[in-house]
């Protein structure tokens, strides 16, 4: 096994391949596996990929991002040789290197598996790789297991398993800084949110939540204070720890930055948008137990739940259970001089008064948060508007009953709409179920199927293997499936549905499908 010496050259590519000059491709063909020996005796494995860069004969081109992950420096000298007879990988287990990357992996698991071969073809156990989820977002992962042998060559039928993060056990005696005198201080119950604010004011870390609409809370408690404000979000007492801090005046600051990962959009026809977006919006945090002292149905959930206004779901095309990340937000103390209202021509005469009415009504319950360039509906007549603030650098503002009278309002004509998600279109209304005559009594079939599924969800002993819906072409099988999906995805079940094409099951095992 003869080796050659190469010099590391950083490239701006977005993959984990290594690249060579055109002359060297005769000795190291494309997609072949190479073994690279580092100066510290470590060994790395790469696949030769195509290059759009001009390289010298002694240069080995690697993505600069990937090189930093592997602790490689530009102009480092390495030894390289080709590896023959690399076996195909049947099963690959990978894990994220940090919690944030795991959240992205879990959210976009199917997209990661489908695009993995675009970024890497040769994998080795315990070697890190980078996966580009979008042109602007990438995650670092570690290869935990390669079967049957490592290194191996990825194929289209390779089973990819994403390993969840393991909980790290910490030594309590090592990290406990409590003084012995603290044991004799009066104990304050955690039901007091002000106490939790004070206790965790210095431990502010981003936290992941699953979104639920406020309607889920209203079905339990009825009317909820402050729920008419578009940017108020509600969380449980148990999810409060580590989120809050105090302002310079000593008051609890409930202003946060909410980052929403908008997954690739899938239309009804099955077309998938390639661009992944991360939207941001400022929100005010409210603790549910500050208004309602009783237990709620969501108290038993292990994951963190956030209840928000329906406008967030509509503007970002989100589904119930979508994940968001809550970050601390430094409050901008500068004031707003004027508000520019953008709306359609038909609303120019009424929109200013409607906005003032909205602010006056909600300021009675506390400060009102507004975000710039966020379309929202002011009344039941589809009056939609968006706002801009002066100075123009401000992306949000917080108004109270004092400053809403001092602000200047300007109305500007502009087409502003809340974009409707194509996947939310209704195929058929429930009252039209009796019209269908192709599959017997459509309503009865619908109710029977939902009844069976509900029993299987409510009783652990009720075993359900599957339900087959059969019928000739055009009889309404797909419509019936969508009706059942809409029924069980609504409250109180809130089930998440995935429509799986049978062709994608080829080469998969039952264990990987269940994960």
UniProtKB/TrEMBL annotation:
Q: Does the keyword Calcium apply?
A: no
Q: Which InterPro entries match?
A: CDC48_domain_2-like_sf, P-loop_NTPase, PEX1-N_C-lobe
Q: Which Pfam families does the annotation name?
A: PEX-1N
Gene3D superfamilies for this protein: 3.10.330.10, P-loop containing nucleotide triphosphate hydrolases
Name all Peroxisomal ATPase PEX1 N-terminal C-lobe domain ranges.
93-164
The UniProt GO MF terms for this protein read: ATP binding
Which GO cellular component terms, listed alphabetically, does the Swiss-Prot or TrEMBL entry include? peroxisome
GO biological process, alphabetically ordered: peroxisome organization
Q: Which UniProt keywords apply?
A: ATP-binding, Nucleotide-binding
Protein origin, superkingdom: Eukaryota
Query: Under which name does UniProt file this protein?
Result: Uncharacterized protein LOC108736608 isoform X6
Q: Which organism is it from?
A: Agrilus planipennis (Emerald ash borer)
């Amino acid at each position: 096994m003869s080796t050659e010496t190469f010099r590391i050259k950083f490239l701006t590519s977005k993959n984990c391949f290594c690249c060579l000059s055109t002359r060297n491709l005769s000795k190291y063909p494309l997609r072949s596996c190479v073994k690279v020996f580092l100066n510290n005796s470590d060994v790395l494995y790469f696949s030769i990929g195509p290059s759009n860069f001009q390289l010298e004969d002694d240069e080995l081109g690697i993505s600069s991002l990937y090189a930093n992950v592997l602790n490689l420096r530009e102009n480092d000298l390495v030894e390289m040789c080709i590896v023959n007879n690399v076996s195909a990988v049947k099963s690959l287990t990978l894990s994220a290197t940090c919690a944030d990357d795991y959240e992205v992996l879990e959210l976009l698991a199917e997209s990661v598996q489908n695009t993995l071969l675009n970024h890497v073809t040769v994998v080795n156990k315990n070697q890190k790789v980078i996966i580009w989820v979008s042109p602007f977002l990438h995650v670092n992962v570690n290869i935990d297991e390669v079967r049957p042998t490592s290194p191996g060559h990825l194929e289209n039928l390779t089973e990819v398993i994403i390993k969840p993060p393991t909980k790290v056990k910490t030594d309590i005696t090592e990290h406990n800084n409590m003084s012995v005198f603290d044991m004799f201080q009066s104990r304050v119950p955690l039901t007091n949110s002000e106490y939790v604010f004070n206790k965790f004011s210095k431990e502010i870390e981003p936290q992941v939540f699953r979104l639920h609409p406020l309607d889920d809370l209203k079905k339990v408690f009825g009317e909820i204070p402050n729920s008419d404000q578009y940017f108020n979000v509600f969380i449980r007492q148990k999810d409060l720890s580590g989120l809050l801090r105090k302002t310079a005046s000593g008051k609890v600051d409930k202003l946060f930055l909410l980052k929403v990962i908008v997954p690739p959009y899938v239309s009804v026809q099955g077309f998938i948008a390639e661009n992944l977006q991360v939207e941001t919006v400022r929100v005010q945090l409210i603790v549910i137990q500050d208004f309602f002292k009783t237990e709620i149905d969501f108290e038993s959930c292990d994951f963190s739940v956030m209840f928000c206004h329906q406008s967030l779901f509509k503007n970002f095309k989100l589904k119930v259970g979508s994940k968001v990340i809550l970050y601390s937000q430094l409050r901008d103390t500068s004031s707003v001089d004027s508000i520019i209202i953008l709306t359609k021509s038909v609303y120019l005469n009424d929109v200013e008064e409607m906005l003032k009415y909205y602010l006056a009504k909600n300021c009675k319950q506390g400060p009102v948060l507004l975000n710039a360039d966020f379309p929202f509906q002011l009344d039941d007549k589809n009056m939609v508007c968006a706002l801009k603030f002066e100075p123009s650098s401000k992306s949000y503002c917080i108004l109270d009953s004092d400053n809403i009278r001092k602000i200047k309002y300007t109305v500007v004509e502009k087409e502003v709409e809340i974009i409707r998600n194509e996947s939310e279109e209704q195929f058929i209304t429930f009252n039209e179920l009796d019209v269908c005559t192709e599959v017997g009594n459509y309503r009865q079939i619908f109710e029977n199927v939902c009844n069976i599924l509900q029993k299987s969800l409510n009783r652990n002993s009720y075993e359900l293997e599957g339900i087959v819906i059969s019928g000739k072409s055009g009889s309404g099988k797909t419509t019936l499936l969508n009706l059942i999906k809409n029924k069980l995805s609504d409250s109180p079940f809130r089930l998440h549905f995935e429509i799986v094409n049978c062709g994608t099951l080829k080469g998969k095992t039952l264990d990987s499908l269940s994960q």
